[in-house]
Amino acid sequence: NEMVENNRRIIRNKIEELVNKEKNFDKDIVDVVVIFISSLIVITVIDIDFQIIPDVLSISGIIISFFLSLFVFDRSIVLTLFAILTGGGIFFLIGKSYEIIAKKEGLGGGDVKLMAYLGGYLGLKSIFFIIFISSLVGTIYGLILMAFKGKKSSHAIPFGPFLSAGAILYLFFGERIIAWYLRKI
Question: What is the C-alpha separation between 151 and 55, in angstroms, rounded?
Answer without folding.
Answer: 29
